[in-house]
Write a structure and sequence with these properties.
The chain has about 140 residues and is mainly α. It has helices spanning about 5-20, 25-30, 35-60, 65-90, 120-135. It holds the Pfam family DUF3040.
């Protein structure tokens, strides 16, 4: 839904005041979408995994232990980079807060079992199950 002209003017005034008040903060906020940066880091991590595995295999073929260890470390760094940026890159919902439009802890049409682990703590799931049985 687009902003009205009055709202756009107010937003521009707020932006100008922010730039005047704290230009360093304004430039850091204006740099772009965090998800985009996280996706780039995720792609770099995937590239590092591929390169690391290639170096690892090359070290095995050349019978060079230091080269194999280096390849493993590069692949491990890529996996670490990917894991650390996965949530920010994909916009995964934090644990404990159900996604928008879901009904209850398991979501629509799903049982509590077989879903993704870590959605809610076990205590909360058990309490919810007890309440449902008690209410029936």
């Amino acid at each position: 839904m687009p902003l009205s002209e009055h709202e756009q003017r107010l937003l521009e005034q707020i932006e100008r005041a922010l730039v005047d008040d704290d230009p360093k903060f304004a430039s850091s906020v204006r740099t772009g979408d965090r998800r985009l940066k996280a996706r780039r880091k995720l792609q770099v991590g995937a590239g590092l995994v591929v390169v690391g595995l290639a170096v690892l295999v090359g070290g095995a073929v050349a019978r060079s232990v230091p080269l194999g260890v280096f390849g493993f470390l590069v692949a491990f760094a890529g996996v670490t980079l990917g894991v650390l940026n996965y949530k920010a890159a994909t916009g995964v919902v934090e644990a404990g807060s159900p996604p928008a439009g879901s009904r209850g802890p398991a979501g629509p049409g799903r049982s509590g079992r077989g879903g993704r682990a870590g959605r809610q703590p076990l205590k909360n799931r058990l309490e919810e199950r007890f309440r449902r049985r008690y209410d029936q």
